[in-house]
Amino acid sequence: MQPSPDRDATVRTRRRRLLIAAALVIVIGLAVHLIGSGPVADFAGDALYAVMIYLVIATVFARARSWVVGTAAIVVCTLIEVFQLTGLPGVWAEAFWPVRLVLGAGFDARDLIAYAVGAIAATVWDPAARRRALPGRG
Question: Which of 19, 33, 36, 50 could pair with 119 as two cysteines, CB 3.0-4.6 Å apart?
Fold first, then answer.
């Protein structure tokens, strides 16, 4: 059984919106990283990182339920944070600084809280945005 053309168009539209949202989150996250400082900016940057991970996963799995995507985002962020314990991201970041933006450089357990907040916020926001985007819903 093949998906209907309407459903395919809906998925394409969803993916396009998710990619636009991801691009905006990246811009905001980079601004926070470059302009902000201190614990509030660090927390916001980490939460935005989790939102971006959510949006990327949701783009790839556009039909997945938001709670599944949110759980996957938390797992991915946690794995990346735990990977920092190996020291490899720090070494790679010294050789090529953009790695620090993607993988970080040092483990911080507080980041896990920020990731959970960001992923949960995206998980709550996504279904609300989907409902607003439905035809006839305004």
Answer: 50
Kindly tell me if the per-residue pLDDT of 56 is higher than 50. yes
125-136 mean pLDDT? 77
Reference 74, options 32, 120, 16; nearest CA is: 120
Amino acid at 99: V
The whole model's pTM is what? 0.86
CA–CA separation, 50 and 69 (whole Å)? 11
Residue 38 region by backbone torsions, left for phi larger than 0, else alpha for psi between -120 and 50, else beta: left
Helix axes of 109-133 and 38-60: crossing angle, nearest 10 degrees: 50
More confident residue, 137 or 7: 7
